[in-house]
Amino acid sequence: MSRNPYVRPVSKTTWYMRNGRYRKYMLREVTCLLVGFYSFLAIFALAVLAGGSEEAWNAFLAAQQNGFWVSFHAAVLIYYLVYMTFDWFKLAPKAMPVQLGEQKLPDLVIVVAHYVAWVIVTLVVFWLAGVV
Amino acid sequence: MSERLLKIEVLRYDPEQDSEPHFQSYEVPCQNDWAILDGLNYIKENLDTTLAFRWSCHMMVCGSCGMMVNGEPVLTCKTFVRDLPDKVRIEPLENFPIERDLVVVLDDVMEKLQRAKPYIIRKDPPPEGKEHIQPRSALYKFKQYTMCVNCMCCYAACPQYALDKEFIGPAVLALAHRYNIDSRDQGKSERLDILADHDGVWNCSFVGACSEVCPKSVDPAAALQQMKLDGAKAYWLQKLPGGKS
Asked: What is the domain range of residue A38?
């Protein structure tokens, strides 16, 4: 009897279509493109500020407040919440388990603590921005 | 006891005859309390004695009956006929070469398992005539990682291992973590290549599929993320003044 193991091919470009679990993972990871976009937007805003023209800065701010951009930012925020924040907060207890004697702190406590911290940080940012 | 006729499609591969695997269908009268492994045994005993597959304990302990059932890596002794549709497709575990039919080649993982040094390494000998005492709280830190039965379902679910065979992979890394956080162990530095190497924990992109399919709730994804955190902490601590390199 001779050995002749068969290796099944794996597609390097379409592997994530194999099941829903992988597709959901890709929806989470694709958020990096949006991070890239917002980094670019922040650099662009800094460049406009550094240009020193108040008129150009006001035009940039006005552009960001038109219907298209407000809808875009709102859609991105929802996408982020669903595929990034919810996912990572749900996974946080895996990376940071808290052991109290023989008991593990329930995952829910760690997840809720993340949401509480998120709300506090958001309020601080809003306060610094003069929104609240 | 109610009976149901199941159409079981099995991926067959004969290394001496076939150039590639093909599906073969069997009509199997299954009892409702059967696991799908019982269906395979029925085929072997009544329909086709040439079918090759691994199994031993039929009670989720030996870890040898891991296979793909309708695309999911499972222990076939734990997957019940009553939870399956009338048509079931059984394939060997994904991401491993097929030796014959449903039997896969596990040499790669066995070699990686040795590299993880999955045993307690001590620099100090135990006290004269005594064993190393471990409080229960220290045991509970790693106990879940001791439940692994090496069924390799996590490797079959891991897309990272599918794409890069150099990746050490979920079960072996979880086992390395199990010994690293054991209060009796002093061998963490000897497992550093497993921890810090590119093929180690940093190759994991946290898809989390390994933990979702694990039949023993070992949660290897958790172990890997904790190892990343440990590794990052150690890296930055050594950068501090007085930190050890």
From this structure: 15-95
And the tokens for B52? Answer: 């090759």
**Residue A57 falls inside a structural domain:** yes
Does the beta carbon of B86 lie under 8 angstroms from any beta carbon of chain A? no
Total domains, chain A: 2
DSSP secondary structure, B95-138, as one string: TS-EEETTEE--HHHHHHHHHT--S---SSPPPTT-PPP--HHH
Looking at the structure, tell me whether residues A61 and A121 fall in a common domain: no
What chain B holds in terms of domains, given with CATH numbers, is: 3-104 (3.10.20.30), 107-239 (1.10.1060.10)
Q: Tell me: the pLDDT tens digits for B194-227?
A: 777 788 999 999 999 999 999 999 999 999 999 9
Whether B99 has its CB under 8 Å from any CB of chain A: the answer is yes
Question: What distance in Å separates the CA atoms of residue B181 and residue B52, rounded to the nearest whole number?
Answer: 39
When pLDDT is cut at 50, 70 and 90, the band that residue B121 belongs to is very high
In this structure, what CATH number is given to the domain that contains residue A87?
1.20.1300.10
Question: Is B194 in contact with B176 (CB distance < 8 Å)?
Answer: yes
Judging contacts by C-beta atoms under 8 Å, the chain B residues touching residue A107 are none
Specify the pTM.
Answer: 0.91
Asked whether the beta carbons of A23 and A16 are under 8 A apart, the reply is yes
Question: Would you tell me which residues 30-89 of chain A have a C-beta closer than 8 angstroms to some C-beta of chain B?
Answer: none
Spatial distance between the Cα atoms of A94 and B180, rounded to a whole number of angstroms: 17
8 Å CB contact of B71 and A19: yes
**Within a domain: A48:** yes
pLDDT in tens, B73-107: 999 999 999 999 999 999 999 999 999 999 999 99
- CA–CA separation, A113 and A93 (whole Å): 10
Compute the mean pLDDT over every residue in chain A, rounded to the nearest whole number. Answer: 93
- Chain A residue numbers with beta carbons less than 8 Å from the beta carbon of B208 are 21, 25, 91
